[in-house]
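Re: decanoyl-CoA structure - here you go.
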Amino acid sequence: MCVGCGPDHPTGLHVTVTAGEGLTVSGSFTVTDDHQGAPGLAHGGILSLAFDEVLGSLIWLIGEPAVTGHLETSYRRPVPVGTTLYIGAAIDRVDGRKIYMSASGRENAVDGPVSVTASAVFVVVPATHFVEHGRAVAPSELSEAAAKVAEVNP
Ligand SMILES: CCCCCCCCCC(=O)SCCNC(=O)CCNC(=O)[C@H](O)C(C)(C)COP(=O)(O)OP(=O)(O)OC[C@H]1O[C@@H](n2cnc3c(N)ncnc32)[C@H](O)[C@@H]1OP(=O)(O)O
């Protein structure tokens, strides 16, 4: 039920992500009427969510839980409803518990015009972070997350 990537979420973004070379991922997200802000255009906060999701996927490559500490988004072109954004993201450097990342989103093709760019700092946390701070979760939710790590790092 993740609002970013959950396939069963009724109005979520349904972001899909694929691991790339080195510490990179590529993702895509199609803007629907559920994601509209101004008439006919994607809501900027929704676009930030898409970037948070794709950037957050980078943590599966290093196998340590981390959460978004800082996320900065630059909106360079309006994104019409119906657009598919192709988002490329990379880990730029790691400094202690801080993971510095960047990403850019292109309109309707991997080499399309750049619509949005983002940079982020994720902070590594202990696995207990989610149990201590979240609502009580079913064991199946945790095992699904663990299975995702195994899928990326078999
Ligand atoms: C099962 C896994 C699933 C993963 C799914 C990913 C989903 C997508 C990503 C998200 O949306 S996560 C949800 C949104 N983010 C949050 O809810 C985070 C809320 N904030 C916190 O929990 C804490 O503030 C945080 C863990 C980020 C930091 O608290 P700590 O007390 O652990 O950090 P500490 O103060 O010890 O600082 C450690 C280092 O991180 C740095 N830091 C802390 N907060 C920061 C921040 N906000 N921005 C940048 N850097 C930060 C801090 O300066 C320091 O750097 P140095 O080591 O160089 O001194």
